[in-house]
Amino acid sequence: MSLPIYFAPLQGFTSAAYRLFHSQIFGNVATYCVPFARIEHGVVRVRDLRDMCPNPNLNQLPQIIVADVVETKQLVEAVSQLGYQQIDINLGCPYPMQTGKGRGAALLANADNLRQVLDAACVANGVQMSVKMRLGFASADECLQIAPLLNQYPLHHVTVHARIASQQYDGDCNMTAFGEFYKTCKHQLIYNGNLTTIEQIQQIENQFPNLAGVMIGRGLLANPALASEYVKGAMLSKTELYKKVGQLHAELFAHNKQVLEGPMQVLLHMQNFWQYLLPDADAKLKKKIGKTRSLSSYESYVSQLLNA
Known about the structure:
16% strand; two-stranded antiparallel ribbon; globular
């Protein structure tokens, strides 16, 4: 039996529209994790809440990023009012614009503040919490230091990206440190980090047989069929993959033309769609797709690439 696949929350990529169309065209994702909601100027960002509105057609897990108890209470209340019974706390964001405010991975280096955040989050009536974290902010040892703290709370699960914050998304995952945390963590544990092939997922599955699932981000952006291929145990042919990518592209393109103002906004959003997608596709066409300032040229280049 295959492990449940969680689609990682990726700001700017896994929007509500992307999640819905991906589920309809590719499927086999157990849970779509929604990019985090945050506080700006003392209030919850409305566009974050809009993007995480529940959809009866797919299983979604909303995420929040917080610096302290005040932000935690605000966000848990706002997200739970949407009807969610579970919320994920981001303890993994490595970017200075968030860690500089004490949010994301910075909380891993501040056990006292993390305890206060978990105290506030875990008393929310009817809402169960989970966390997504890094191995640490500055050192992989930090995950072992906070493991006893996490074990004290009734968390639904813990997801660990097997890098530290300073790596961001570069360099190797630290499987030794993850293995130590795996032995210490009393919660259901989900692995995240550098999964791009069926073989890599299976290797993690065999190495850590008690995992509750795996979370995939850029690997699914690069190959949207990866979860389906893993669950079904068979890869799509290039023709089949490109056909389905074309369907996903067409749905997003039509959606963006409806909700965005003007061709340039549509173009910029669609160019972002290709940042990770199909890394082995024609490099010259991908470069043209990324550089053009004409929507008609963009459509022509995409058609050439997908019909190659």
